[in-house]
Write a structure and sequence with these properties.
This protein is 47% helix and 8% strand. With 187 residues, it is mainly α.
Length: 187
């Protein structure tokens, strides 16, 4: 009986410490030091309308926008509650068909071969908000035509939105599609 009382006391102490104090402290510190990120890195247009999060990809299909990489989430694209890859292997017929369909769609929109892999393959989380420089560059003719912009003006806007490698050595240069599309709408 004595050991049960000790176990219950320890459980109550740990529940308060780990289940209440720790989460409140971490949330307070995040709000204090990283308020934008802790709030979801929400993006607003010039009119103050919420357009999405800079951390989660958004679906774009209008020719006047740069298109994001595909999403592998279930229910609907870029569903943050269903984050995760498709788990389809490289020889899986479903994956091969998806990539083929996406490639044909991109080619029919005016993108020439080779189509960058990040425009036809989902990221591991299925939520990636970024595309590669190559993916942005191959989409420029379509976006320029749809917006009646010359490609040099569009190139300047694209280059202004290049994010460098993390810590200077991780990954590659990338472009946040939502930030770029908001900038295009405001230019």
């Amino acid at each position: 009986m004595k050991q049960i009382k000790i176990a219950l006391k320890l459980f109550a102490i740990l529940m308060i410490l780990v289940g209440v104090i720790y989460p409140v402290a971490v949330t307070a510190l995040a709000q204090l030091f990283f308020p934008k990120e802790a709030g979801g890195s929400l993006m607003y247009d010039s009119g103050g309308n919420l357009t999405g999060s800079a951390l989660i990809g958004q679906p774009f299909s209008d020719p006047k926008y740069f298109w994001s990489r595909p999403s592998a989430t279930s229910d609907y694209p870029y569903n943050p509650l269903a984050s995760g890859g498709s788990n389809l292997g490289p020889t899986n017929k479903i994956l091969i068909e998806q990539i083929s369909n996406r490639t044909e769609l991109l080619k029919s929109s005016g993108i020439q071969s080779p189509v960058p892999s990040d425009l036809v393959e989902a990221s591991a989380s299925g939520l990636d908000p970024h595309i590669s420089m190559q993916s942005a560059l191959v989409q420029m003719p379509r976006v320029a035509r749809a917006r009646n912009l010359d490609e040099e003006t569009l190139r300047k806007i694209v280059l202004e939105h290049v994010e460098e490698r993390q810590f200077g050595f991780l990954g590659k240069q990338r472009i946040n599609v939502l930030k770029l599309n908001i900038a295009l709408d405001e230019s």
